[in-house]
Amino acid sequence: MMTALHVIFGTVALAAAPAALLARKGGRWHARFGAAYMATMAVVLLSAGFLWQAKGHLFLLPLAAVSGYLVFNGYRNVVRHRRRVPDPFQDRVDIAAAGAAAAAGVAVAYLGGTASTPLMLSIKPALIGIGGIAVAFALNEVLGFLSPRLPLGWLLAHFASMIAGFISAVTAFVVINAHGVPMILRWLVPSALGASLIVGFTLASLRAGARRGRRVRVGTVGPAVSLPAVAPATPPRSPVGLG
User: Are the C-beta atoms of residues 230 and 211 closer than 8 Å to each other?
Assistant: First the structure.
């Protein structure tokens, strides 16, 4: 039963994420597909938390936690952007979630670093890399609460988190089903494609922000980048349908 739920909802999540990506940002269908993606991913990750025992792969448990945080963080960036008044309680929840994600990332990297079986040795670099990415995302959010957020940062953080969560789902699908492909490639190729998409979107958004005189920051932390004002400040539209 749990396996059937995992497969069915995973299939829906793999379809809903690209649909949300292609829909007009801020529009009705983007919100609907995004909500469907988050709901189905919640079922996928919850079921994965039970299925790891059947497979005997402990690393699937912290990986599910990392994936869940990435999707959650993408949603929370939108919520914080739309919030009109401070909410210390919600901020504490977000910080606690980031701390849990960092712990899960450390666990994934540790399992990779201490690998001894043939399977674990074959995916050791991937586990260490994924663990490091999880810690980086979590620290970025925690540090973001220590400095003011600038206009474009929430959008870049939202996109990066959602894409990273989607790539984790794609990776799980490929790892299980791409028989005959070396295991390390099953892990690394989706991550490389996802990273390229995130970098491309970030650079395109920064260029669009520069054309509109936006003062932006990549993600939610880091030094502000002052860009020359050449047009009224309006939200940039991405060339890949994300703006």
Answer: yes
Q: Would residue 213 be called left, alpha or beta, if left means φ above 0 and alpha means ψ between -120 and 50 degrees?
A: left
Cα 35 from Cα 28, distance rounded (Å)? 11
Beta bridge partners of 51: none
- Spatial distance between the Cα atoms of 136 and 129, rounded to a whole number of angstroms: 11
Contacting residues for 138 by C-beta, under 8 A, at least 6 apart: 69, 98, 99, 101, 102, 105
**What span, in angstroms and rounded, lies between the C-alpha atoms of 223 and 139?**
15
| Cα–Cα distance for residue pair 62/32, rounded to 1 Å | 28
Task: Tell me how far the alpha carbon of residue 190 is from its chain's centroid.
Answer: 13
Per-residue pLDDT of the chain (243 residues; tens, 9 = 90+): 777 888 888 889 889 999 998 998 888 999 999 999 999 988 888 887 777 666 666 677 777 788 889 999 999 988 888 888 888 899 999 999 999 999 988 988 998 889 888 878 877 888 888 888 889 989 988 888 776 656 678 888 899 999 988 888 888 788 778 888 888 888 888 888 988 999 998 888 888 877 776 444 444 443 333 333 334 444 444 333 333
DSSP state of 56: T
| Alpha carbon distances (Å) from 216 to 77, 141, 211 | 15, 16, 12
Whole-model pTM? 0.75
Backbone angles phi, psi at 123, to 5 degrees: -115, 15
- Residue whose entry in the numeric block shows the structure tokens 């190729």: 189
Q: In sequence order, what are the residues at sequence separation of 6 or more whose Cβ sits closer than 8 angstroms to the Cβ of residue 78?
A: 154, 158
The gap between the terminal CA atoms of the chain, to the nearest Å, is 40
